[in-house]
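Intended use. Records like the one below are meant for learning the mapping from a protein sequence to its folded structure. Do not use them to infer anything beyond what is encoded.
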Amino acid sequence: MFINTLLNALPGVAAQGLIWSIMAIGVYITYKILDLPDLTVDGTMCTGGAVFIVFSSAGWNPWSALLAAFLAGMIAGLATGLLHTACGIPAILAGILTQLGLYSVNLRIMGQSNRPISVDKYDLLVSARNVREWSLSNPILVCLLFTAATIGVLYWFFGTEQGCAVRATGANPSMARAQGINTSFTTVLGLMLSNGLVALSAALLAQYQGFADVNSGRGAIVIGLAAVIIGDVLLGKVFRNFALKLTSVVFGSLIYYLVYQVVILLGLKSDDMKLITALIVALFLAVPYWKGRYFTKHAKKGAGSHA
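Structure written out for the chain above:
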């Protein structure tokens, strides 16, 4: 019974996992590449959906509304970047300030705390009702194409001179500045790109769920970190290529949502998922530390005794 229920839920798990993986890739840019803690994500995750629904309701086609959502996310990232680089505010606090401001901005955009959108009335790219259909409109296929395109574009961008400058800024800011790189610009650029992807993910999620809510992004950064960390812990040693590292984030997001579904089916309340997510992230963060502190030492001692 449990297995059958889980199998029936897998299409929805795959669709949502792929949608959130784009957000997680955005988190990967700040957390892994820039080495910056960016908490803007919790606000941007609502902004993207809000902008998409408002523009779609105004008669824009879904591609134009997606672009508007992406640009809105980039503006949010720009705000955090300028607070950090131009005002000297620590990155984590700059993200909190932008996130706080976005709550009011998102309410202004939607005009209310929750804004629905109907698949029957508007032309949407993804919809939960098509998740079991074998068609080109299946959200799993659509989101898979979006994810693959995102990874492809990022792989190309971070191979360019400007992309390498962003990576150098995260790896060693002092050395990057010594090489003539404007680290303030590359930091802002990375934050803009990251939050643009988060907003793009939010726009897809709003279509899939059929609504945008002012609280929909609360805790999103933890989910993004969970996907990044799970993918890195499980596949980091195998996936060395940059494109494969981004792909590991996708797998991490899918695994997270699979665990989420299992937890729900086991009878735990959805209200407890924030706590469970925090525990999952803490566990996967601790695994490399435990491995390095306890297992590596034992392995070295064993090798020494044999010698």
